Amino acid sequence: MAERISVAIKLKNVKYGTKNMEILKEITGEIYKGGITTLVGPSGSGKSTLFSLLNGMKTPQTGTIIINDKDIGQYDPIQLRREVGIVLQKATMLSGDVYKNLSLPYTLQGKRLSEEKAIEMLKLIGLNESFLHRKANDLSGGQQQRISIARTLLNEPPILLLDEITSSLDQASQHEIEQLISNVNKQFSTTILWITHNLRQALTIGHDTWVMIDGKLVESGSSDLLQNPRTDEVRRFLKGGEK
Amino acid sequence: MSYLTLSITLIFVLIPFILSKQFKLGLEKDTVIATVRSVIQLLAVGYILQFVFDSESYLFIILMILLMIGAAVQNARKKGVSISGITWKLIVTYSFIEILTQSILIGLKIIPPTAQYIIPISGMLIGNSMVLSILFLNRFTSEVENRSDETELILTLGGTPKQSIHHSLMSSIRASTIPTIESQKTIGLVQLPGMMSGQIIAGADPVQAVMFQLLIIFLLLTTAVITSVMLGFLSYPSLFNERMQFLK
């Protein structure tokens, strides 16, 4: 991981909620460039909502979000979404072959993805070129998730958000994806934020960890905090009893 | 046809009524309501049309058309409540179709500018446009819901709202216009269209009746496509906000 010198994402007093519910309560924190930060916490603690704010799919009610030294409100939404890529738990595939799916980020920009580039991406995610013209919806969950990661990476985002991307996969696929993400982080110096319910994953893959409970950022810092939590709230969460 | 003859035709209402009672279909009440409503509505329209034709006033013609548009909007808007400003979008669509088609018909002297021609043709066009918009809105709202994952995927990858909704929009436009196009393929083979049959029964020259029917067919085709395309392109932006966020 790069040294904790430059900040990729800075949040200050970020609040978000619906008419009936406060989802994020004054989140303040920093994500360092080039690292892997895992986000852990009970279901409904606001982790995915935070991702939606960072990717520009939602707008905070109050507070500021600075991404690469620029306020999120100053970004053109399209530019922001290309710079902050997101991969969701459900790897939605367009009907058609793998090539059509990989081409999507290029098609949206009116460009054509060369087959050579597509094959290069397949190799990066550990699939061979025979996959290129296979129907995307016929692939296994793990393979679809890898295609989904590759598709997002084709936008060359400096920041990558991963929302529970291994939660529905078997153990072997989980390890493969962890390896892939680790490689992407090293090869492209991509700043990665990863929501996971797997504490082993958070401890082994994440350089840093944020623990979110009930819409608040309760603890943040080096992933070691998962072994030595400072607060009772996090201790209770780690013991398995959701707050 | 005299009122006495008309009353004899009620025998055709009696048949479904008896069948419903016999087989316990539970349609008796609806049959009676539908019959009473159609008699009252059509007779009222008949007298109103007679008054408008006699008055030869463009003001009454315009009022009649506005009434038709209002009734069509009232009926169709229920299918698009999830789309903000649907009432105005329907008003704009129906008004545009009415102005465009009547301008061509009257401007090119295809029909004379009299109530006798303008009102029935407007009724057919606005009625067809209303059915089309209901078909479109039904399909579009369900497509948007079913494809919400795809819409969000495209947005998160940096696509525009139009790109993200493209598939839903196109398949809804296609699905809503297909019945009109398909029914025109078999017209005259399976059934004689209502207007043409009416003219022939009233003693008009069949070839002349066919020519008018063809005019109506071509008009219905254009209204079908314009309704779906226009309503589609007016509706989709209200699913997003100015930050290109999908408002589910």
TrEMBL record, chain A:
<dbReference type="InterPro" id="IPR003439">
    <property type="entry name" value="ABC_transporter-like_ATP-bd"/>
</dbReference>
<dbReference type="InterPro" id="IPR005670">
    <property type="entry name" value="PstB-like"/>
</dbReference>
<dbReference type="InterPro" id="IPR017871">
    <property type="entry name" value="ABC_transporter-like_CS"/>
</dbReference>
<keyword id="KW-0547">Nucleotide-binding</keyword>
<feature type="domain" description="ABC transporter">
    <location>
        <begin position="9"/>
        <end position="239"/>
    </location>
</feature>
<dbReference type="InterPro" id="IPR003593">
    <property type="entry name" value="AAA+_ATPase"/>
</dbReference>
<protein>
    <submittedName>
        <fullName>ABC transport system ATP-binding protein</fullName>
    </submittedName>
</protein>
<keyword id="KW-0813">Transport</keyword>
<dbReference type="GO" id="GO:0005524">
    <property type="term" value="F:ATP binding"/>
</dbReference>
<keyword id="KW-0067">ATP-binding</keyword>
<dbReference type="Pfam" id="PF00005">
    <property type="entry name" value="ABC_tran"/>
</dbReference>
<dbReference type="InterPro" id="IPR027417">
    <property type="entry name" value="P-loop_NTPase"/>
</dbReference>
UniProtKB/TrEMBL annotation, chain B:
<keyword id="KW-0472">Membrane</keyword>
<comment type="similarity">
    <text>Belongs to the UPF0014 family.</text>
</comment>
<feature type="transmembrane region" description="Helical">
    <location>
        <begin position="57"/>
        <end position="76"/>
    </location>
</feature>
<feature type="transmembrane region" description="Helical">
    <location>
        <begin position="88"/>
        <end position="111"/>
    </location>
</feature>
<feature type="transmembrane region" description="Helical">
    <location>
        <begin position="117"/>
        <end position="137"/>
    </location>
</feature>
<feature type="transmembrane region" description="Helical">
    <location>
        <begin position="214"/>
        <end position="236"/>
    </location>
</feature>
<dbReference type="InterPro" id="IPR005226">
    <property type="entry name" value="UPF0014_fam"/>
</dbReference>
<keyword id="KW-0812">Transmembrane</keyword>
<dbReference type="Pfam" id="PF03649">
    <property type="entry name" value="UPF0014"/>
</dbReference>
<keyword id="KW-1133">Transmembrane helix</keyword>
<protein>
    <submittedName>
        <fullName>ABC transport system permease protein</fullName>
    </submittedName>
</protein>
